[in-house]
Each structure stands twice: as structure tokens, then as C-alpha cells.
Amino acid sequence: MTKNILVADDAPNVVLSVEFLMKQAGYDVRTANNGEEALLAIQEKKPDLVLLDVMMPVRDGYDVCQAIKADPDMKDIRIIMLTAKGRPVEKEKGIALGADEYITKPFSTKELVEKVRIVLGDT
Amino acid sequence: MLQEWVILLVSICYLGTLFAIAYYADKRADAGRSIISNPYIYTLSIAVYCTAWTFYGSVGRAAGTGVSFLPIYIGPTLMASLWWIILRKIIRIAKVYRVTSIADFIASRYGKSTLAGGLVTIIAVVGIMPYISLQLKAISTSFNVLHHYPALESIKQQKTTMWNDTAFSVAMILAAFSILFGTRNIDATERHEGMVAAIAFESIVKLIAFSAAGIYVTFIMFDGPDDLFSWVPHYNELSNLIVMDALPGGYTNWFTLTFLSMMAIMFLPRQFQVLVVENVNEDHVRKAAWLFPLYLLLINIFVIPIAMAGNMLFPEGLIDPDIFVLTLPISENQEILTIFIYLGGLSAATGMVIIATIALSTMVCNDLVMPVLLRMQSLQRVDLSKALLTIRRGSIILVLLLGYMYFRLIGESYTLVSMGLVSFTAAAQFAPPILIGIYWKGANRKGAICGLLAGFIMWAYTLVLPSFVRSGWLPTSFLENGPFGLELLIPYKLLGLDMFDPITHSVFWTMLVNIGSLVSISLLSRQNAIERIQAALFVDVFSQVKDTRIWRGTALVAELKNLIARFVGKKKADKAFSDYAKTRGIYLSERVQADASLVEFAERQLSGAIGAASARVMVSSVVEGESVSLHEVMQILDETSQVIEYSHRLEEKSKELEAATLELQAVNTRLKELDRMKDEFVSTVSHELRTPLTSVRAFSEILHDNQDLSEDERRKFLSIILKESERLTRLTNQILDLAKFESGKTQWVMERVELSEVVTEALDSVSQLFLEKKIELTQKVPHESVFIRADRDRIIQVVINLISNAVKFCEPENGKVTVHLTKNRTSIRMDVTDNGPGIPNSEQKHIFEKFYQLQDLNKGKPGGSGLGLAICQRIIKYHGGKIWVKSSPGVGATFSFTLPKF
Amino acid sequence: MNKSSSLNERLVFILIIGILALNYPLMAIIDKPVFLKGIPVLYLYLFFIWSCFIGLVAFTLRKNPRPKPLSKKTPPPGKL
After folding, report:
1. Between residues B133 and B380, which one has the greater pLDDT?
2. Residue that terminates a domain, selected from B384, B417, B450
3. pLDDT > 90? residue B232
């Protein structure tokens, strides 16, 4: 069965590129432009993985992550956080909140796809 | 030549008259209409200085040594010139601090020392003995002369027992009179108006009497002074009397006697009594300072003529020159005159005795006996007021007896004057502690007592002891070879100093050890608190500010409470006292006298505030009824005040420290804030840079890794890469711009700029945007040129930014953008209006912040960086203008800025 | 208190003059067995100086009529 990935980022071009990559990797992709949209989309249809940008308007990535992990129905969703902030404390925060992985922008496409596969257990 | 009873009767009548005058004066004083309150009476009372010594003794001395009697009167004349300064100060001190005798004065000055007071009293009593005995001698001799003349041998040879010795009777009569005069009651001020009136009267009598004698001798027995003196060259032994050569001891002696009498006029106990204690009004000193010397001059004018006459008329050695004054008129059978002159002499003598004994008895009672009694009776508050009178009366009798004893034992072999000088020297011992004490605060009790003791001992040794030798009570070898053969200790030639006559010698040594001890020991030792208070009170008496003086008289509860309140505050004091009353179950009435335990309690309360020692001083001063100025006390509380000062400084320092700490904290917070802002800025910048980079890299990799992309996709991805690169570039430039603005490193090129051109140029750059979105543009630009001084590129940058923002936020197709340029006298203004969604109020104030971007949910992230407006703001601000926004949500927004013209 | 301190100075000055005039060496000048108008000069000198001294002190200490400080109309009467 094809796995379902949600990409949430407020930069449309980033979303575009990630969408292309995921599709190319063989996943179904939905997109969201902010945290609110992301949560709605998740509730609509539960993805297997969420690629979550941290710096988003309305509700940021950490919020969404926390919300997902707090919900018993959703806490098995895998989360990979994307951020432009490079400080280690951000990474730790993400992990602490329950993210499975963390990628800093700009990322290498290969790295992104690989991490997705690992997290989803598709290697 | 006169009957004994006649003389006695006359004498008694005269004394009775004196008494009557005194009585009358006292009555007037009680009624408040004092008769003695004028400078003339004051002056005449001072004239008690002229005693039998003046009356009889001067002539005796002149007869032997010419003008040598004069310094005794010149001295006071000279001293009187300083009375206005010194005497006034002493009077003021005495009045203000309730001093009642010379012993009291010295005791009070030196820390209320009863030891000093007692010592002064003893010195006074011992020192005045010779003087009193000389009066007794004079009276008895004059009596005898009147009685026995011309049987002169019997005058000389009278050896009597005490009981029929005239002098003894005289002494007893005088004692009785003094008791009557001076001890009828105890007056708080120790003033004796009656006595003063009596001696003023006596001064008149003696002046007139002596002058009468003088006139008689000069103008009746001779034909005037020139006639009298014309006889002098005929007598060899007289010719040297008219020059100083006749003086034993010469000019030195002259000087010494002058000095001595300068001291005596003020510090003989009786003189102190009339000058200071009995003074009614300070201002009287003004007249007395010259009137009294005038009196002295007048009474001495006829001394020399009388002496000369006596020498000429009486063969040498037959008659004691001391009594020339009497024998001259008697020899002419002038009975009335002689009696009158006798009365003059009696006046002179009794005046001295009465005043002296009263003054001495006051001192003995107050400064010698009472302190001892009080010490013994310290536990009981026995009423001693009755005992006081008895003690005084006893003292009077004692003093007169002592005077008589001296007379009997020693006085017979001395001339009147020499006896008097011994007393003068004793009185001079009081001069250093008083004169130095009222000008030098450093003179302290130890110094004063040592000085007095040293002077007294020296005086006794150099003057009194030798008189014992002369009268046969000690072997003459004492005088010739010194005690135990020690020649250096010969009383008349201490340490071999043999160039002076006995008096000068004694004056020299006593003054030396007295002043020397006083000064050196004062410098070497410390004063206690009360000494310092008293020293300050005395020395500064003229500059006393009538500030918070505490109490006169006994201490009432109210007074104690107020004292405490001054230091611990009224509330605390009230509470303390009421607590005290409660615990004892008593009611403390304010007007009641405080008892000992309350005083103690008060002292304890006070010591909590100002220390035990100071509390003791304060409380005891209140209770003892002295007045102490609060100012004074605070001044001398050295330790306390130093501590207070120190703790003040500490307080200040800690306040400063607190303030500094607060400041540091504020600065720290600010720094942290700035740091946080910096961090935020950095992270925002990095985020803003990384975002486009992400797309660039991702699509680059996609393009690179995927050969089989469609043409459309390829083109699309490439254009994204291009756009994002542009964006990146733009962003980087903006960030760098901003950084330059912040650090002030921007280089501005200021030149004359024409604004309509600027607008045109800006519009050209963004014309593409207008075309793309089909936005309508309206320009409202004045026809004439609008010049400003500015950096052209930067202004263009601002205009472009505003216009492109406007375009960005307009609806495509329907969008309208208006550029409106206006000017006034001082500035220009540009408005860029759009009809986009507008900006909510909440965001309007943030819109010029760095990285602030409008949250527009529908449109997602805006294309800008959020830095444009921030940069515009800085540019406009640099030029001295203002930039702002006005907007109604839903209608549109207008961004405006002003710039000053040239 | 300036008036009183100059007063004090004057008094001290008079005193010093007095001491000088009535002691060695000034006295020694007059100290001659000479008669003036029948009276020995020493006596004359001494009494004369004495009188002068008294006069000076009296003059220095004379009480000045106090000028009334509040009166502005007429100057105070009396000498000086």
C-alpha cells in the first residue's frame, strides 16, 4: 500500500520541491501551508508521515508535533521536522517533543528521501 | 587724751549708724526699690579696697620710703582699664551661672569640683588672716592712741592678756556686727544690699576724713604744699624720699607691687564679693572703671604731705609712722578733728572686716563644710537650711579669731603694709585659675588644683613661715641658713635667687609654680565631660546662644521626662514613664519632684540613647539644678558623635551601593534584552536566507538528478531557482543595508534631488509589476520642480519599495495605486495609496519593524522579506523626515513620508 | 561686635601706655630731686600721669547716646 505523506511548509517553493521528491520516491503527497491547515489535513486523512516545517504561521511546527503526539489516535504518525534554524537546541526540542527525525534546510535531496524511507521503514 | 568711754561711745554710735543704713537699705531692697543700684554706690563699695592700710599704713610707708606706697593704687587703676573686658565677663559668668563667691567661681569653672572650691576656701581663709589682723591692729592702735596720747610709751609697750586686749574686744564686736549684717537670712543670690550700702557710706566717710587730715596738715599746719616741701631739703634723711632711690628693691619692687595689686583688686575675696557677687548691673562697670581710680587718686593725694610733716615734726623712732594721721592733729589738740579721723580709720577697718568675713563665711559654709556634710548625709535628705545659718555665724567668729591669733602671735612685729602684702600675694594665687580659665578652655581641674596647691605652698613657705621666724616662733637659722642647713631652700632666696625683696621673690616663685602647673598639667591631662561643659560655658559666656537651655532649679518629673524625650522621642518617653508608673502602681504627677529611683530610671532610659557616661552627666546636671545647654552637651559627646557620624557614613555608603546595584541590574536586563533581540535577529536572518536556499538547492538537485523531466517541468523548476536566487540576492542586500544603517557605516551621497524625477524613475522600475497585475496608477505631482537635499538612490529605493508594496497588496485587475506628491514651505510629502485589504490597527504599529510581515492567511507567506519598510524608515529618518501609515482595513492603505527641504 | 572689639583694643592700648609711663625706664627720666612749683617732680609726674590715665579711660568708656535705629526723621541728638 502506498504510504501517505503530508508536507507542511509556508514557503510554496519548498513545498513544491519536497512534493516532487516524495512523489518520485513513490509516496502519496498532500500539502499544507501552515500549522492549522496541517492539523486539519491530518484529521481528514491520517498520514503515515508528516514533513513538518518549524517556522510556520498560525501554529508552528512544534505545536503541531505536540498536538499529534498528544492525540492517542495520531501519535503513531511519524514526524520529520524541517527547519532553517541551525541551532542544536532546536533539534533537541524537536526530538523531545516526539519527532522521529530532524532535517536542516537547505537539505540534500538524497538525504531527505533516505531519512523518509528509514523512518517509514521502507529501506 | 580722750576718755575710754568717749571713744567707745563714739565708736558704737558710728557702728550703729552703719547698721541703721544697712537695715534701711535691706528694707528698700525687699520692697524692690533698691538704693544701691547705681554706679556711684557700686564704685564706693569697691572702695572697700582702701582699708586701714590705706588710712594709716600708706602714710607709714611713705614716711619711710617715699612713693613706694603708690603702686598699690596705681595697679588697680591700670587694671580698671581692663574691667570693661575682663570684669564684665566674670560678672556675666557669675550672674548666668549663679556663682556666689570666688571659691564657687573656681569650683564651677573646673568641672564643679568641690575639691577646688574647698582648696580656694582654705587658701582664702589662711591668706586673709594677716589682712584681718592688720585691721584689728589698726583699730586697737588708733583706739589706744586716742586714749593714751601723749603717753606714747604706753601705746607701744602694752602687753596685755587676751581678755583685756583692745584688739580682742574689737574682734568680737566686729564679729557681732558681721553676724548681724550678713547672716540674718540666707539669700539665694548671696547678695547683701544693706552691707553694700553701709560700706559705701563708709567709703565716703574715710575719704572725707583722710582728706580732712590732709588739708589740715598741708594748709593749716603749713602754708600749702610748696611751703611743706620747701622744708624737705633741710632734712637730710628726707631728701631721698622724693626719688625712687628710697625704695628698697627699686623699680623691680615697684613693678611687682603694681602687678600684685592689679591681681588683688579683683581676687581678694572681699573685692570679688563687691565687684562680682554684689554687682547689680553690668553697666555700672563702665563708670566704675574710671571713678574708682579717681577715688584712689583723691584719697592718696595727701599721703605724702602727711608723711613728710610727720617725719619733720616727730623725732625719729618715737612715733610709729603708721599713726601719723592721728598724731599730727592730736599734737595740735584738735580733738574733734582727731575723733573724726579716728572714725575714718574705723570705717576703713570695719568695712574690710565685715565684707571679708561675710565673704569668707559664705565660702566656708558653701564650699567647705556643706560638701563634706552632704557627702556624709548622702542617704538622707535632711533639711540643712537651719544649720546653714549656724555654720555661717560660726565661720565668722572663727575667721575673726584666726585674725586675732595671727595678730597676737605675729602681727606685732610687722608694719601694716607688709602684712597686707602677704595677703595680696595669697589672693594673687586665684588670678591664674580665673583669668586663664575664662579665656582658655583647655585649663582643666587637675591643672587648676595643682596650680593652686603649688602656689599656696610656695606662698606659705616664702612669706608665712618667715614671719614666724621674725616673731620668734622659729629659729633665725631657718632664715639665714635654710631648713636643715639647705641654703637653696632659704625662704627668701629660693634656689639662690637673692636679688629680690621678699615680696617680689615670693610673687615670682608663686606665680611661676602656679601658672606653670596650671598650664603644663592642663596640657598633659584630659578633661572629663563636665569640665568641658563648664569650660565652654565660661569661656563662651558672651556668645551663648539662648538655645535649648534645660532647667533651672530642682528636677520635676515633667522636666526629667522632657529631657528623656529630647533624646528618645516624646512617644517613647511618655510610654517609658507611664510604664514605670504602672509597674510601681503609682501615679506620676508631672509637677511632683522626681525621686531617686525615677531619676535612676530616667538615666537608664537615656543611656540607651546616648551612652551611660553622657546620660549620667545629663541627668545629674538636671537634678543638681544647673543649667546646661543642649548644644554644649552634644558638642562634648565626642565618642557618641563620632559613632553617629561613622554610622551615618556607613548608611550613606550602603545606600550608594544599593543604588549602584539597581543600576547594574537594569543595565544587565537591557543587555540581555539586546542580546535576545540580537539572537532573534540572527535566527530570523538565517531562516530567511535558508528558505530560498532550500528551494534553490532542492530544485538544482532535482534538475541534476533527473534527466527525464518534461520541458515544462524543467522550465518551471529553473525559473523557481532563478526567482529564489533573486530573492536571496535581494534579501542579502537588504540585510547588509540594514546592518550598515545600524552600525552607521552607510555612506550617504547628499545632493540636490528633484522629486518628480525620482517618482518617474521609480515608476519606471516597477512598471512591469503594474502591467503584470494590471494595476491602475495615478500620479499627482506638482508642475514645478520640487527640490530636496538627499541621497538620490536611497530616496528612489524608498519610493520603489512603497510603490511595489502597494502593488503587491492590490487586487489584480481592480487595483489602484496613487502617488501623491505635495510640498509646503518647509518640507515635501509623498503619499502612496493602494486599495488593497488594508492593515489592521494591531499591526500598524509593528509594520516598520525588521522582518515584520503581514499575516495574511489567504495569501500565505508574502513575497517580501519584511525588511523593506524597516530600511525605508531608516532612510527617511536619516534625512530628518517621518514615515508612517494610515489604513482602514478593507479600504486600503496609505504610506506617507515627509522630508525637509533644503 | 566690631565696636566692642575696637573698644577693647583701645582699652588695652591705654593700659600698655599706662604701664610704660609708670615704670622704668620712663619714670627714671623724671626721677630727679627737683622741685617744680615747690613740689617734687616725681610726685607731680606720677599724679599727673595717673590723672591722665583716668581721664583716658573715662573718655573711652563714655556711653554714647544710642542712635535709635527705627527713627528715620531726625538724627540722634547729643554729642558726636
Report:
1. B133
2. B417
3. no
Q: Determine if the peptide bond prior to B150 is cis (ω within 30°).
A: yes
Evaluate whether chains B and C are touching (3 or more beta carbon pairs less than 8 Å apart): yes
Residues spanned by the domain of B592:
545-636
Residues B662, B604: one domain? no
- Identify residues of B whose CB sits under 8 angstroms from chain A CBs: 683, 686-699, 701-702, 705-706, 720, 723-724, 855, 857, 860-861
Residues B567/B609, Cβ–Cβ less than 8 Å: yes
Contact assessment for residue A51 and residue A8, using Cβ atoms and an 8 Å cutoff? yes
pLDDT score, position B123 = 94
pLDDT in tens, B730-742: 888 888 888 888 7
Are B479 and B469 spatial neighbours (Cβ–Cβ below 8 Å)?
Answer: yes
Decide if B695 and A11 are in contact by the 8 Å CB cutoff: yes
Residues B370-395 as b/e (b if ≥16 CB within 10 A, e otherwise) read bbebeeeeeeeeeeeeeebeebbbbb
Whole-number Å distance between alpha carbons of B125 and B135? 15
According to DSSP H, which parts of B611-749 are helical?
Answer: 612-623, 630-636, 638-705, 711-743
**Best CA proximity match to C11, nearest among B83, B325, B360, A32:** B83
User: 10 Å Cβ neighbour count for C26?
Assistant: 15
Q: Based on the fold, state whether residues B714 and B758 are members of the same structural domain.
A: no
**Cα–Cα distance, A38 to A49 (Å, whole number):** 12
Report residue B589: phi and psi, to 5°: -80, 140
Number of domains chain B contains: 4
Please state, in angstroms and as integers, the Cα–Cα distance from residue B540 to each residue in B132, B441, B481, B629, B800, following that order. Answer: 36, 9, 50, 12, 89
CB contact under 8 A, A107 and B855: no
What pTM does this model have?
0.58
Q: Same domain, yes or no, for B592 and B690? A: no
**Interface contact flag, B243 C63, Cβ < 8 Å:** no
Contact residues, chain A, for B698 at CB < 8 Å: 14, 17-18, 21, 106-107, 109
Give A 56-75 residues with CB within 8 A of chain B: 57-58
- Given CB atoms, is A39 within the 8 Å cutoff of chain B? no
pLDDT in tens, C16-73: 888 888 887 777 777 777 777 777 888 888 899 999 999 999 998 887 665 544 444 4
Q: What is the dihedral of CA B702, B707, B710, B711, to 10 degrees?
A: 90
| Residues in CB range of B2: below 8 A, 6 or more apart | B146, B147, B335, B339
Mean of pLDDT values over B331-339: 84
Distances (CA, A) of A26 to A1, B63, B902: 10, 158, 67
Q: What is residue B218's DSSP assignment?
A: I
Helix, strand, or coil here: A77? coil
pLDDT band (50, 70, 90) for residue B104: confident
Whole-number pLDDT of residue B548: 37
Instruction: Give Cβ neighbours of residue B46 (< 8 Å, ≥ 6 apart).
Output: B271, B274, B275, B288, B292
In this predicted structure, the answer to whether residue B612 has a pLDDT above a threshold of 70 is no
Q: What is the CATH number of the domain that holds B262?
A: 1.20.1730.10
Q: CB-based contact (8 Å) between C73 and chain B?
A: no
Say if residue B236's pLDDT is above 70: no
Q: In this complex, which of B690, B857, B861 lies closest to A105 when CB atoms are compared?
A: B690
Shared-domain flag, residues B767 and B686 = no
* B11 located within any domain: yes
Which overall architecture, per CATH, does domain A4-120 show?
3-Layer(aba) Sandwich (3.40)
**B757 and B610 share one domain:** no
